[in-house]
Amino acid sequence: MRGISREEKKRLSIALEILMWLWLLFLDEPTTGLDSATAFFVVQTLKHIVVDGNKTIVSSIHHPSNEVFHLLNDLCLLSSGEVIFFGDAKLAIQAVIAEDRLTSASNQVLWAAQDYVPKAITLILGL
């Protein structure tokens, strides 16, 4: 795969997996190394594949942007090696805050969701 960019290699790799017509895909950090617009495009495309193609995609994503976070259906949130939330991504922030399971105010999921639950972020950060 010479002569193509890192972003193109990543998208090509995902496309090859999709073309295999498996009902379950495991993707390890499909957005790592991509700019925010490309990362959003990749996750949005994966979401369409889940909805339209009747597939399940399990993926690890570190530091999702707010826009990417809103595309997630279900979420398994890890902190310090432990599962602190598993369920509907839209409920993750409220559940984690309600259970006081945060190890620090800098957990990336809070920053990714700051527009999603701004009041909770203000509360956690003491602003």
Your description of this structure?
The chain has 127 residues and is of the alpha+beta class. It has one domain: 3-Layer(aba) Sandwich (Rossmann fold), CATH 3.40.50.300. The chain contains six helices and four strands. Strand 1, helix 2 and strand 2 form a beta-alpha-beta unit. The protein is globular, with a radius of gyration of 16 Å. The N and C termini lie far apart (49 Å).
Total number of distinct structural domains: 1
Level-2 CATH architecture: 3-Layer(aba) Sandwich
Major sheet strand order: 1-2
CATH level 1 class label? Alpha Beta
**CATH fold title:** Rossmann fold
**What shape does the CA trace take?**
globular
Radius of gyration: 16 Å
Task: Write a brief structural summary.
The chain has helices at 6-19, 36-53, 66-71, 92-99, 108-112, 118-125, and strands at residues 24-28, 56-60, 74-79, 82-88. The strands form two sheets. It has a two-stranded parallel sheet with strand order 1-2. The chain has a two-stranded antiparallel ribbon with strand order 3-4.
Secondary structure layout:
Elements: H1 6-19, E1 24-28, H2 36-53, E2 56-60, H3 66-71, E3 74-79, E4 82-88, H4 92-99, H5 108-112, H6 118-125
Parallel strand pairs: 1-2
Antiparallel strand pairs: 3-4
Signal peptide: 1-33
Keywords: Signal, Transport
InterPro entries: P-loop_NTPase (IPR027417), Plant_ABCG (IPR052215)
